[in-house]
Amino acid sequence: MDHAESGTMAADGGFAGDTGLFNADLAPVPPAGRDWSWVNMSTVWMGMVHNVVAYEAAAGLMQLGLSALQSLAAVAVAYFVLFVAMWFNARPGTAYGIPFCVLIRSSFGPRGAQLPVVIRGFCAIFWFAVQGYAGSLAIDAIIGTLIPAWNTLTMPILGMALKGWVAVALFWALHAWIVSHGVHRIRNFELIAGPLVILVGLLATAWGLTVAHGVGPLFDQPSRLTGTDAWLTFCVGVTGMIGIWSTFAVNIPDLSRFVRSERDQVIGQLIGLPLTAIVFTAMSVVTTSATILVFGHPIWDPVQLLLALHEPWVLLLGGVTIIVATLSVNVAANIMPAAYDLVNLMPRRLGFNSASMLVLVIGLFFAPWLWFHNANSIFAVLGGIGGLLGPVTGIMLTDYYLIRRQRLSVPELYRYEGRYAGRGGWNPAGVWAFLIGGTCALIGAVVPALHTIYAFAWFIGIAVGAAVYGVLATRRRAVEGLSPARA
Length: 487
Hints:
mainly alpha, two-stranded antiparallel ribbon, two-stranded antiparallel sheet, Hydantoin permease
């Protein structure tokens, strides 16, 4: 161990940890600082659920051939499963005030934890780039409506028109403004953003019901799939919807660490996640079904729908809503966890604000404009991410509830030596469970004969990861004679 790793630094209340694992942004939130109520938790989730990618993913289920009712059923199943996973994975954050990148050290070791943290950070930045590009399309459409000359800025640069680059730059600047004052500004922004998006979503739903003259014609659109194809597509849809939030099922402690009680986090997530998500999805399905009646084909991109309506005031109102919704999900679900992950990698060099700005820069290198407009590519990426992070969720749940029995030594989570050190900072049980679970989940993507099981990637990953970790960690405890508290 080098000198930098063995040093300590003080925090509030005299808490100390090794400098390679600790700084003020990673320190446990003291009970007095956990002031988020269930209202804050639910509005944060409202702001995250109401986003362009979730809208397009739900509407994209219909483009893949499912009926409106089948699409709603797929979403309901996915979000109920997610709620249960997030409910249980959020509890240690609320109980101990620690973020994901610290909690994961319990099951992977202080050095091994960097593996899931890097993958989670990569996914968060990827989604930031996707959402950011989606929001920039709304800015492009609004400016093009107000200033027709804007639409002549079509010179291509690295696969995107000049006007697109300017729109991206403007949207990135809005992100920077919101995150520049830390977590509390994010919380306050979500109090406004979540309810606003619901209101405009209701207007879009009213339009859909008006042009269809009621609910009947919208839900009478039959499925284009039958038999096995219908069930496999349904499973792909469920896994894909889970894939949108599988990243957050892992790092939900990043939010729950600020919540004042277990009751607040459960009620807040129940209202903000499955209930709001199902309502929002119903809105997107109704609206997309209406586009089939009006235009003869589904329009699953909300910006393209706004342009197709040829009403400037509708475009402005809808475009601003898309911008607010995208900012809402990006700052809470993508920038915030990615920033914590970067701080965890370099705690002596980065704080939350500087790490947030670094996320904005790195996000550009994902170039989402090169592949964004394709429902199949979105579901392929969603399924892959879900399969890869499923094992991490399973490992975390097994470690906290079965191996640790909900008891953690918080000071030792910030040290290279101690009960969580494993072997040289690596917990073999966590690493092997992740590798085996991830392989089982994703093998269907590369082996044609096993392609069918890829539709269940997240479920396979979480089950295999949990089972392998449980066996290996229990065996280690038995061999070494450790109690649950010392395992």
